[in-house]
Amino acid sequence: MSALRGAGFEERRAVMLERLAEVEAAHQDALAGGGPKSLARHRGRGKLTARERIELLLDPDTPFLELSPLAGWGSDFTTGASIVTGIGVVEGVECLVTANDPTVKGGSSNPWTLRKALRANEIAAANRLPVISLVESGGADLPSQKEIFIPGGALFRDLTRLSAAGIPTVAVVFGNSTAGGAYVPGMSDHVIMVKERSKVFLGGPPLVKMATGEESDDESLGGADMHARVSGLADHFALDEPDALRTARRVVARLNWRKQGPDPRPEPRPPLFDEEDLLGIVPGDLRTPFDPREVVVRVVDGSEFDEFKPLYGPSLATGWAEVHGYPVGILANAQGVLFSAESQKAAQFIQLANQRDIPLLFLHNTTGYMVGREYEQGGIIKHGAMMINAVANSRVPHISVLMGASYGAGHYGMCGRAYDPRFLFSWPSAKSAVMGPAQLAGVLSIVARQSAAAKGRPYDEDADAALRAMVEQQIESESLPMFLSGRLYDDGVIDPRDTRTVLALCLSAIHTAPVEGARGGFGVFRM
């Protein structure tokens, strides 16, 4: 591993830093929320921002793993989707925290807000994380209600199912929680409201007037004092926002919550190699292979990686390691292409991890399964299917990190989004699509040529060149991590140097729930 900083390292590092700067600029857009005017108006009302509320809620000097910060990027909606979600520690308990951003259209929910909130609930349920909702929302963004109303009911369904599963839910209401949003506190186990700030009602005074003719005001209809004294919806009455957050911390302290997974090994050893080197491993051109072991030894404890079948199926490195004291089985693409041997090796390795109740970490850099007459005759379809079968029916927790390419069915076999990894993160160098841009454009060109020949028509070479250029540009832009992250196909684009920390936070959250593998039940493996 000592030769890493040789020829090309600084060039690769420079490309990665340039891409990181683009991601950071996008993150700044999310942090800006509704912009300076909205922020000033919000502060003028004596209110804290969403992230300030989260900071006061969490234990001092503990990390917050923000999830899907780029949701909505590239869409007509504000980057971040007017909600902050993530995992943090409250009174020593790892919790899933969501906070509406009221500086963005009053915290109203758009289609990306819904998808982001549903993903957060999914993570909470899979990992048995208590949920704390910091609520201040005007409800659905009405112009886009057609994309919110019908699927949006799942938000309330999730709250009831979390409670039924014994996973605590806490709602802290700082402002409006109206219409459907009223069911967030209504369906939470614990509800905290703020004096003269919280407003929770199915219909506000104007709607009540229209529906019934009744005259009412915000306080008598849905204020914190009324809900604490009359309706009983408020379990706790807070004097101001800091008091509400202190109360939420006390609620969590009294949950009697315990992790159900095994504890990590105490005092884990750091890697022997510098995490800064992770900036210079992935080439700017993903057609150039790189050794994923260079990543592994800079992430795992003591840089110890016990490889499984190192001489068989060498395009996929598999082996055992620990990250911050938690055992992991690692599958890392070495040269991009997956052959039959790699597929069979992966299936066996995944079965072993399930026997041992060890979570799996997938490090992606694959162009997919190998094609061609020799490989089709050699059974690449059934062997690739064997690997995908193993991934799909594995029951140990999975974490995926897209480092480089993640194309075609190789994305599936390496536990892409559709295969329910507990967490999936991308590096700024990652790309994911049905195939590479040049390959996809080339396939379309070949099909067009064959079609023209079959019809006896001349082929327009200039039009072909323009088509290929257009398709390549489209696929390239749609393969980039910010585009994919904006659509919640990952849980965030991370700095490679943060990989070990992010994995540790994920593994700790995962071990809040039992960690148990499948004992059989993999279906039929075609041999």
From TrEMBL:
Superkingdom per UniProt: Bacteria
Domain CoA carboxyltransferase C-terminal: 270-509
InterPro entries per UniProt: AcCoA_carboxyl_beta, ClpP/crotonase-like_dom_sf, COA_CT_C, COA_CT_N, MCCB/AccD1-like
The species this protein was found in: Actinacidiphila yanglinensis
Record-linked Gene3D superfamilies: 2-enoyl-CoA Hydratase, Chain A, domain 1 (3.90.226.10)
Domain CoA carboxyltransferase N-terminal: from-to ranges: 16-267
Protein name (record): Acetyl-CoA carboxylase, carboxyltransferase component
Molecular-function GO term, any one: transferase activity
Entry keyword annotation includes Amino-acid biosynthesis: no
Keyword Transferase: yes
